[in-house]
Design brief:
65% of the residues lie in helices and 3% in strands. The protein has 174 residues and is mainly α. It has one domain. It has a two-stranded antiparallel sheet. Strand 1 and strand 2 form a beta hairpin. Helix 1 runs antiparallel to helix 2, helix 2 crosses helix 4 and helix 4 packs across helix 5.
């Protein structure tokens, strides 16, 4: 939850998220260095480690999205349609939300037919953005930033833009 005073935001959750993402970025950077030095990063388990930390970061961002909506009166489905866009079809936060859901639930989907709407929508979004089933979270993060030098903290400016869009939406209905 955030507070807005005049044109300034007081957002303690964003400060905590920033600290956490910076910590995860250090770990992802360390893993990236190890991958670059490895003869076989897959066999060394490095790529899976990278996916794990990136997934945890996406999940932390998802928690921030939910906390931001507290007391706004805006439904999650509406909030995920506003703010910065990743493509004509998808907003930035819809992609982040899908990446977090992928990390949390994809183990349940392995070898199973798609059984619910969340699974279907999540898989559709992640695979559309990632362009591959191999290391989809790393690829989603790279596509969100349009670079191979990936960091979760680089997503923070779009979260701020989204929060402003949520606030504007809230004001429309106040």
């Amino acid at each position: 939850m955030y507070l807005k005073i005049s044109d300034e935001y007081a957002d303690g959750e964003l400060r905590l998220l920033t600290e956490l993402l910076n910590t995860i970025d250090e770990k992802v950077f360390e893993i990236s260095r190890l991958i670059a030095a490895s003869v076989d990063p897959d066999s060394d388990g490095l790529t899976d480690r990278g996916e794990y930390f990136i997934g945890a970061g996406f999940s932390a961002i998802q928690q921030y999205l939910t906390e931001t909506l507290t007391l706004t009166g805006i439904k999650k489905y509406r909030a995920f349609e506003i703010g910065p866009r990743q493509s004509d079809r998808l907003t930035f936060v819809a992609v982040v939300n899908a990446a977090a859901n992928w990390w949390k639930y994809s183990a349940e989907w392995v070898g199973q037919p798609t059984q619910n709407e969340l699974a279907e929508k999540t898989q559709e979004i992640v695979l559309e953005v990632a362009g591959t089933e191999e290391y989809p979270l790393s690829n989603v993060l790279a596509k969100l930033q349009n670079t191979s030098e990936i960091t979760l903290s680089a997503l923070l400016p779009n979260l701020v833009l989204w929060r402003s869009a949520v606030d504007a939406e809230k004001e429309k209905h106040a």
